[in-house]
């Protein structure tokens, strides 16, 4: 819980001052803890920053993956855009400072991790496109993925730095119209399945890695239902005994808990839900 406190309080300072201008001393004073307590959670300020970005990426993936697989296809594109803009608007301060300081050097391991998240996000969009448009976009669906990402990036930048009130429902409706036009009228696709296969694929999370995450969260959890669900999911991962319906029910128990969204996402991918 102390790690969570540090992340939340540091984010407040980063949003006001930026990464570079915020010292560990300021963070510990803002948290009301010692420097020793800080270093028990994070080895450096850089590790803290990467943990914040990592959390934001995981929140985005887990939320959109569930949405794409559990929303009626007639409203899916609209819900997707609105959910993405709601998410970015909710985290506007962090997104602004991240954009301003995105050129600071990050280590290679982190860049590989972020690339993996990016490829996972593209897979989620591909699932959405195939569900909504089917054979209509058989030849152009890979181009459509990048068009959707481009629309998201462009309008997200606008939202971040627009001081006037924005009607997110109208924005989502507008982008649904644009996406439908691209899906219907694109006749000269550039990207193909073969081309996209030349890009390095994101690594699949192993059972051992998922178990490690679950065990860490079980130690942190206090809520009885969520903790018991995690214990049962761990047991099933080690020795499968439950039906798919029971596993889905257990995942539903933990899905909305802020510390379990990523575990829920990893397990849904692992079981193919």
TrEMBL record:
<dbReference type="InterPro" id="IPR050624">
    <property type="entry name" value="HTH-type_Tx_Regulator"/>
</dbReference>
<feature type="domain" description="HTH tetR-type">
    <location>
        <begin position="1"/>
        <end position="60"/>
    </location>
</feature>
<keyword id="KW-0175">Coiled coil</keyword>
<keyword id="KW-0678">Repressor</keyword>
<feature type="coiled-coil region">
    <location>
        <begin position="204"/>
        <end position="231"/>
    </location>
</feature>
<dbReference type="InterPro" id="IPR009057">
    <property type="entry name" value="Homeodomain-like_sf"/>
</dbReference>
<feature type="DNA-binding region" description="H-T-H motif">
    <location>
        <begin position="23"/>
        <end position="42"/>
    </location>
</feature>
<dbReference type="InterPro" id="IPR001647">
    <property type="entry name" value="HTH_TetR"/>
</dbReference>
<keyword id="KW-0238">DNA-binding</keyword>
<protein>
    <submittedName>
        <fullName>HTH-type transcriptional regulator YerO</fullName>
    </submittedName>
</protein>
<dbReference type="Pfam" id="PF00440">
    <property type="entry name" value="TetR_N"/>
</dbReference>
């Amino acid at each position: 819980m102390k790690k969570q406190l540090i992340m939340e309080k540091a984010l407040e300072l980063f949003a006001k001052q930026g990464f570079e201008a915020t010292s560990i001393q300021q963070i510990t004073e803002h948290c009301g803890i010692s420097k020793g307590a800080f270093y028990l959670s994070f080895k450096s300020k850089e590790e803290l920053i990467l943990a914040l970005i990592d959390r934001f990426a995981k929140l985005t993936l887990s939320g959109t993956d569930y949405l794409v697989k559990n929303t009626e296809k007639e409203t899916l594109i609209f819900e997707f855009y609105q959910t993405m803009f709601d998410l970015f608007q909710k985290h506007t301060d962090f997104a602004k400072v991240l954009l301003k300081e995105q050129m600071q050097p990050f280590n290679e391991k982190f860049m590989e991790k972020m690339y993996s998240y990016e490829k996972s996000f593209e897979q989620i969009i591909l699932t959405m496109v195939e569900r909504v448009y089917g054979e209509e976009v058989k030849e152009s669906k890979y181009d459509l993925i990048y068009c959707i990402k481009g629309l998201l990036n462009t309008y997200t930048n606008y939202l971040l730095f627009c001081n006037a009130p924005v009607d997110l429902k109208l924005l989502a409706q507008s982008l649904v119209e644009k996406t439908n036009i691209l899906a219907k009228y694109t006749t000269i696709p550039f990207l193909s399945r073969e081309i996209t296969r030349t890009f390095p694929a994101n690594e699949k999370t192993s059972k051992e890695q998922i178990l490690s995450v679950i065990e860490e969260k079980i130690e942190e959890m206090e809520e009885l239902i969520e903790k018991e669900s995690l214990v049962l999911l761990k047991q099933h991962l080690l020795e499968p005994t439950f039906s798919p319906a029971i596993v889905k029910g257990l995942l539903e128990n933990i899905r909305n808990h802020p510390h379990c969204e990523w575990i829920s996402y990893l397990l849904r991918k692992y079981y193919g839900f």
